[in-house]
Amino acid sequence: MNQTFVIQLNNVEKTFGTQKILRGVNLSIPEGKTTVIVGGSGQGKSVIIKHILGLVQPDSGSILINGKDINNVKKKELKEIRSQFGVLFQNAALFDSMTVFDNVALPLRERTRMTEKEIRDIVNDKLALMDIVGSNDKYPAQISGGMKKRVGLARALVLNPKIIFFDEPTTGLDVAKSNEIYRVFFRSHAKLGYTAVIVSHDFPRILKLADYVALLHNGVIQDMLTPEAFQLSNNPVIKDYVKETMGTLYSSESMEA
Amino acid sequence: MLGFLEKLGEITLYYVRQAGRMGIFLFFCILSIFKPPYKFSPVIKQIYIIGSLSIFVIFFTGAFTGMVLGLQGYNTLRKFGAEGLLGSAVALSLIRELGPVLAALMVTGRAGSAICAEIGVMRISEQIDALDCMAIDPHKYIMAPKFVAGVISMPLLTAIFNVVGIFGGYVIGVGLLGANRGDFFASISSNLEFSDIYMGLVKSICFGLLIIWISSAKGYFIHLERGGSFGAEGVSKVTTSAVVLSSVLILVFDYFITSVLL
Fold first, then answer.
1. pTM higher than 0.80, yes or no?
2. Given B121, B135, B141, which is nearest A82 (Cβ)?
3. Distance, CA of B56 to CA of B106 (rounded, Å)
4. N or C: which end of chain B has fewer CB within 10 A?
5. CA-based nearest residue to A34, from A217, A213, A211
């Protein structure tokens, strides 16, 4: 991979209580591409994202964002690093006492000096990109799960960040709603060209979006490969994962087995 | 024995860490108040929530506190033939002590609990993490308006409590029990000094800060509570502990402020 890496995790270890979740995670995220981290539930995929966001500190190892160690920077620098981020949380993390419009407008109101008219134009534009029209005055409790995720994505995109994190973007959604999320993701990524890090266990459907797939198993990244190479990998852990989630790829394999 | 000592050490360390966390939290909240940009509308909104919405409860508790002071005071002072001092007895008890303390306890129950629950829910539903990730400082965005509103609202609520209380004492003492109206007000104006009002003011400002500090810090650090605090039960647990801790600290600080200012 001849790429520029915007995020690098070096030997990251983390223990919660007596449970060692990450046992030396090494991962490099290439710029402008979509990297999907897959793995079973409870393997620590979301913990990796929280480390990258600086919400959780590792017990050992380092996390570099554009070469800067996120745990060794001043508060002001951390703020600057985070200003390049957009995050779609697992439960969307919308501000439940604010309307859909105010949720998406919040980063603009707090981080820029735009006028209300400019803010309104940008927010409406982003909401339209997410296929959300006519729900500006609704509260998060009044909209569906899929719509919440799309509002969350609109909020994540509103400041045109360079790196966007998606924590389980389709969890809890049915197939149609998941496809809807994938569609808006695909459209926004094609239009805005950001670096995307997606944590998901929606395998193999998530492969449609991925440029690279990394498997987290037993607290380490087993490998990071293109979707095709991932499915054909000889790494026994990846092979088992692919087999478990997709079934055997070719009939000859099952016959041999 | 070793197990007991280990447990004791663990609990002690937890509380030392919590005190440290809350101290640093207070520092950052106060610091963020002075950082630009200065937005007034969130402060006005919080003054409405903490202050205006508490007026009703303050009015009633103030009235009945004053009335009971009038009743008890009149019957006690009459034994010494000093009913004429009823006004100053009611006013001084309220302005120096009962007004700030009772108003603060009422605000703790009404607004403190709401603040703690609101911030606790924001924490467990990742809304605070979302703010952090958007490079928006939660201290500045959520806490600073509440701190300013608390410090502004509390003295005003205390003033309402005192005025209503004195009037309640007047209604019972003069209206019902027959104390002299002139003596009632004359004793207030001759015995009440600026230092009494100053003491009440200092107390109410300190209590306002204390209530907002404890309530918001408890909610903010809900995920670090001892033994874990999660979901709806976690929020209810942490809200109860915020109200209890605020109430106890109000009484503790009341003693210390009185001993310093007397």
1. yes
2. B135
3. 11
4. N
5. A211
